[in-house]
């Protein structure tokens, strides 16, 4: 196999493998929230209070979609609104204690399910994953900034 064929295979297989892994982890604990809502909640947790429009941009969705997501997260008690100190006409959303607890519980369930599968790998397979993590993290960071 040529270097170009190997590169093409990685380019095609990697997104599929990551998507399947992500879907499998989401299925470990059914949630009343869809993946887009969980992702938005995680972004608010990571970035702190944020305007819904800015959150929509970060999540790659339309403002109307983010309005629905924010409403759902507010109704579940996971987000709260507060005035934007820079512009009193606007508002920010922030994560609540309930939202923090939800994300922590979800991460724990997913980590437990993933660990159970990692425990089934050979030491060589586990070492390959360990070695790949820094590169995957670099790829993710680069893709998030483009």
Give the topology.
Blueprint (H helix, E strand, L loop, with lengths): L2 H24 L8 H13 L4 H8 L3 H13 L3 E6 L2 E9 L1 H22 L4 H22 L2
Antiparallel strand pairs: 1-2
Strand order of the largest sheet: 1-2
Count of the separate structural domains? 1
What is the count of DSSP helices, taking H or I runs of 4+ residues? 6
What is the rounded Rg? 19 Å
Helix content range: 55-70%
Count of DSSP strands:
2
CATH architecture annotation:
Orthogonal Bundle
For this structure, the quaternary state is: single chain
GO molecular function: DNA binding; DNA-binding transcription factor activity
Domain HTH marR-type: 11-138
Pfam family, one: MarR
InterPro entries: HTH-type_Bedaq_tolerance, HTH_MarR-typ, Tscrpt_reg_MarR-type_CS, WH-like_DNA-bd_sf, WH_DNA-bd_sf
């Amino acid at each position: 196999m040529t270097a170009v064929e190997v590169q093409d295979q990685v380019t095609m297989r990697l997104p599929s493998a990551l998507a399947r892994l992500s879907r499998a982890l989401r299925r470990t604990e059914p949630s009343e929230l869809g993946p887009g809502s969980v992702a938005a909640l995680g972004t608010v947790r990571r970035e702190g209070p944020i305007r819904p429009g800015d959150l929509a941009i970060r999540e790659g969705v339309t403002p109307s979609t983010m309005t629905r997501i924010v409403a759902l997260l507010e109704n579940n008690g996971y987000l709260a609104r507060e005035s934007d100190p820079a512009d009193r006409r606007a508002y920010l959303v922030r994560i609540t204690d309930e939202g923090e607890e939800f994300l922590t519980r979800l991460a724990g369930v997913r980590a437990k399910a993933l660990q159970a599968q990692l425990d089934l790998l050979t030491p060589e397979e586990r070492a390959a994953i360990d070695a790949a993590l820094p590169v995957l993290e670099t790829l993710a960071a680069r893709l998030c900034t483009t």
